[in-house]
Amino acid sequence: MTLENAVRVFAGIMVLLSVALTLWVHPNFFWLTVFIGANLIQSAFTGFCPAAMILSRLGFSNGPVR
């Protein structure tokens, strides 16, 4: 899996997790969803993505391995 796809999967999982926490644990977990969305927007403009940095250290590459 490429780094870009891994970041998308991670973001999707985090959004679904934050929605579940909001519904079943406490309504203030919606702030986690807001944070995730804001981070996605800022990473699109700046190119800085903490999740991509962490996932690249875990072994996800920027392209297919040849």
From TrEMBL:
Keywords: Membrane, Transmembrane, Transmembrane helix
Record field: transmembrane: 7-25, 31-56
Domain Inner membrane protein YgaP-like transmembrane, chain residue ranges per copy: 2-56
Source organism, top-level taxon: Bacteria
Name of the protein in question: Rhodanese
Gene3D superfamilies in the record: 6.10.140.1340
Pfam families: YgaP-like_TM
